[in-house]
Design brief:
The chain has ten helices and 15 strands. With 345 residues, the protein is α/β, with parallel strands linked by helices. The longest helix is centred in the middle third of the chain and has 21 residues.
Length: 345
């Protein structure tokens, strides 16, 4: 077995390279996972466009949506074993602080956000192997594919947590603003929860794709006032909004798409402007953020997928090998895709 592995790094201004890296060796409670699927995330696009000067400081392997097989374990590992198929959560956790006790690994106060996969310190999963602690490895049922596991690890889990925050109820209109990977997962899940889903995105491919995977209606936010378009469909508006785009205008516009007691959940990263605060004009609308997902969410999401027959792999439109990394990121940047993943035999 070779002592090196391939990994994808950003070199700046939308360019990527595949380089050789030492193959990690697990110790203590660490495990080595041989990758089978690693998904591209919308958040990758922010760093993908950073300058060459920025990335010269940190040639770190990208990727934070891992799923694969454990091939080696440290001497103190007790929770998983060699051969386990796993979906890997990308935020390390101490399992001791108050945030971890709530299952909010992403908010761990002991380790901190700077040590997540593909941070500026820790190599990510766009590689042949990834080194992680056992406590972020979730055993993947045989009924779910590695592509399902990879999507659960970020986009799917994030969408599910946001929908739980929004408390979707059967027969309600659910507006999903932004139909990238998180938005498409939200469409699938909201429809299975009994929602009547409206997808909003300026990209025609994404709108058409959403109609095939759970949306009953789609609208183009560039075609006219979003509130008017949504209320033409719903009458009073959508009871639930899941805003995934991170676009400043979308964050404001979705408020006009809702009735007096709506529930709006803001998920997407990005944007620069402050959101408008309406005070009493908000009526009794409930507005909140949603950040990634919890330990508990993994288990309830997997159970929901198995019972409802949901497969996130249905959202995958493009599959690439690591050697095709530039083509993979270029395709994803075009926005004419569903989910994009690196796969291994």
């Amino acid at each position: 077995m070779t002592d090196t592995m391939r990994g994808v790094i950003f070199v700046g201004d939308g360019k990527v390279e595949v380089r050789e890296f030492p193959k990690p060796k697990p110790s203590g409670t660490q495990v080595l996972v041989a990758m089978k699927a690693s998904g591209l995330c919308g958040s990758d696009m922010h760093s993908y466009r950073q300058s060459a000067e920025y990335w010269a400081k940190a040639p770190i392997i990208r990727g934070h949506e891992p799923s694969g097989v454990i091939v080696e374990v440290g001497e103190a590992v007790s929770m998983v074993q060699v051969g386990d198929r796993v979906s890997v959560y990308h935020a390390p956790a101490c399992n001791h602080c108050e945030a971890c006790a709530r299952g909010e690994f992403f908010n761990c106060t002991t380790i901190g956000p700077g040590n997540r996969l593909a941070s500026m310190k820790v190599h990510g999963s766009d590689a042949d192997y990834v080194l992680v602690d056992q406590n972020v490895c979730f055993v993947l049922p045989d009924e779910l594919s590695f592509e399902d596991g990879s999507t659960i690890a970020c986009a799917g889990g994030t969408a599910y947590h946001a929908l739980r925050r929004g408390d979707v109820r059967g027969g309600e209109y659910v507006l999903v603003s932004g139909l990238g990977p998180v938005g498409l997962c939200a469409v699938q899940l909201a429809q299975a929860m009994g929602g009547i889903v409206i997808g909003s995105d300026p990209v025609a491919f994404r709108r058409e794709f959403a109609l095939k995977h759970g949306a009953s209606y789609v609208v183009d936010p560039m075609a006219g006032p979003l509130g008017e378009q949504v209320k033409d469909i719903t009458g009073e508006g959508a009871e639930v909004v899941i805003e995934t785009s991170g676009n400043d205008q979308a964050r404001v516009d979705v408020v006009a798409c809702t009735p007096y007691h709506a529930r709006l959940v803001y998920v997407g990263w990005g944007g620069n402007a402050r959101n408008a605060i309406y005070g009493p004009m908000l009526g009794e609308r409930w507005i909140t953020g949603s950040n990634m997902f919890t330990h508990e969410d993994y288990h309830t999401l997997v159970r929901f997928m198995l019972r409802q027959g949901i497969r996130f792999s249905d959202l995958v439109t493009h599959r690439f090998s690591l050697e095709q990394a530039q083509a993979a990121f270029d395709a994803f940047a075009s926005r004419d895709t569903g989910k994009v993943v690196f796969t291994w035999d």
